[in-house]
Amino acid sequence: MGTAAQADIPINGARVFPESLTVDSAGNLYNSSNNGTIYRTVPGGKTAEPWIRPDAANGLTSLLGVLVDEPRGMLWACNNPGSGGPPAPGAVSSVKGFDLKTGALKADYKFPAGKPAACNDIAVAKDGALWANDTASGRLFSVPEGGNALVLFAEGPELVGVDGTAFAEDGTLYINNVRQNLLQRVNRKPDGSYAGLTTLTLNDKLNGPDALRPLGGNKFLQAEGPGGRIALIEVSGDSATVTPVKTGLDSSPSIAWIGKAGYATEGKIGYLFDPALKDKDPGQFVIRSFALPEGL
């Protein structure tokens, strides 16, 4: 990917409350939103513009994680009942897949009924399987290559609060937990089934870890919403080093990059949930740009 100009990107919309970010190899930057719209910033674009809007056909309501999957030509999105207000009638959590060229809905994998669910993040494994998590009820799901439904991989109280989900280069799955402020390795038995979690020892405390994006090897970039920072995560065995890359952000749930330019959403979620702020104008929502350190 080429290097983009490092300029903040205003999002064209009111009360957007952006969450996740993802980028394709052409340099298009996509962000999700609480209002269910997927915004796109084209290469050289000055603003993030609505690209896929909610309608009866796509069933979009409120979005968290988004992820470009170029081998399939797809943009995956975690769709949920609305946050900060009453959910739309019949809205359920699901992973939706959109054609990366046209924005047309191509797939819709609904979470099983019967439990609260919040699809939060998405990852794609080396074997092509699509993975999604459920923050509310502590579950990990996958859709095998060629499959057409979510398959439960793991469930348990230790997974309640699961948020960022990403694979290291060797295929090991790592997660963070936004409620417990943990970074964890997902262990697997020889047959590939779930074998529990290993909580990594860190050199610094986490504060609301959210998006976890692979950099290659055992390195990741992680966004921390309440902490307002982006950090480099370097895993070694059962430990990991946390190195701040960008601080001072306003509730930053996600991270993406184009060349040496990093981008972080500012969610301003206090205006969704804080009674003192709920009815106030959050102002312009902006995707913040910053230079990534040398060596990334």
From TrEMBL:
Pfam families reported for this sequence: SSL_N
Name of the protein: SMP-30/Gluconolactonase/LRE-like region domain-containing protein
Organism of origin: Candidatus Andeanibacterium colombiense
